[in-house]
Amino acid sequence: MRKISDNKDPKLVFRHVFLAAGFGWLFDAMDVGLLSFILVALRKEWALTAQEAGLLGSVNLIGMTIGAALGGYLADKIGRRPVFLMTLVCFGVFSFGSAFASGLGSMLILRFLMGLGLGAELPVASTLVNEFAPPDKKGRIVVLLESFWAAGWILAAILAYFVIPPFGWRTAVMIGAIPVLFAFWVRRAVPESPQFGNHRGRPIKLSELFTTYKRETIALWAVWFAIAFSYYGMFLWLPSILVEKGFSMIQSFRYVLLMTLAQLPGYFTAAYFVEKWGRKPTLSVFLVLSGGMSLGFGLSNSISMLLLTGSLLSFFNLGAWGALYAYTPENYPTEIRAVGTGFAASFGRIGSVIAPFLVGAMVQKDIGHTWIFGMFTVVIIIGTGMLLLFGKETKVR
Question: ∠ at Cα 349 (145, 200), nearest 5°?
Fold first, then answer.
């Protein structure tokens, strides 16, 4: 396949880069989303305790933590495009292999290796799209890129609902991994970022993250930690928590699917407001409302309230993710943009590693769901406060 840059039409080049990144994210999200559903099946099949199930969620995120920092550094060192390709190969191979895991030990290793690829891909993809996007639409474009993640989760919920009960979790994982081959085929034609080309060979000054851009780094790391802690703690456990509340596996999957559908309008709304209000105000509002809905979900004790607060939680939390991906790359200049984004994501993944295991331990100790989701609210509010205190608006940059 020829590189799409052989065609000089910049709109065509940008469209191809956007779709290549978007479809990669969609398939990645589908596989990550499947984990939340197969945890329900694995706890029964392998007789896992709640803590062991939480460890399975956390080990994937340990890989993402390492991958985000490594991917960001390599993208500024050797280029966005080669890292963009390598991450998808890494993720796809081990994702498919996880369908053949024989027990908890082998699944832990495979999920860790998957995490390396996924963690490296996300900041690199958002940086690449940011550098190809039209200057006056960068924020909106990156938020729309994030909407592919919601589409992937919706597909994961559909796949889980229709495939896992009759055919088992292994079949669902294999089906979910196969489309990555298509994403890789499309991605081969993606050109290198012209902005990276202009800075190729320049030394990467990591110290600038903590000197020249200290305020930006403090704000970003705090928000990344808060949003990753809350998202992975809540959404990886959502189907299992619904089962804990007395619903069957089929009912749990159906309700999570309905809640997940609210993610897409959350992204689209955030995409509108990042250009209307700015990045920082949009991110702050969506974070605060996400925290409020988290507490509301923990307090809910009826189907109607669970669906309402769960849907609004999906709407605001994923909208905040979209705004954060748009905001982060704009805080740093080209020569440290990918590494700055990658390190912020990596620090955030520390929260995502802690949360699933912590929720598992809390569930095992019979700590109520109100306390669990209230904890997420507190963390989100602290992260928002750090953003308001240290963060800078980047729309005008």
Answer: 60
The band of 258, judged by pLDDT with boundaries at 50, 70 and 90, is: confident
Residues 6+ apart with CB under 8 A from 64: 115, 116, 118, 119, 349, 352
Q: Which of 230, 171, 233, 224 is nearest to 36 (CA)?
A: 233
Q: What's the CA gap between 339 and 347, in Å, rounded?
A: 12
* pLDDT on residue 154: 85
Alpha helices, H only, the chain: 10-45, 50-77, 80-97, 104-132, 138-167, 169-177, 180-187, 194-199, 214-235, 238-244, 249-260, 263-276, 279-299, 303-327, 337-364, 369-390
The pLDDT, as a whole number, for residue 239 is 82
118 confidence band (pLDDT: 50, 70, 90): confident
Contact by Cβ (8 Å): 160, 39: no
**What is the pTM (predicted TM-score) of this model?**
0.78
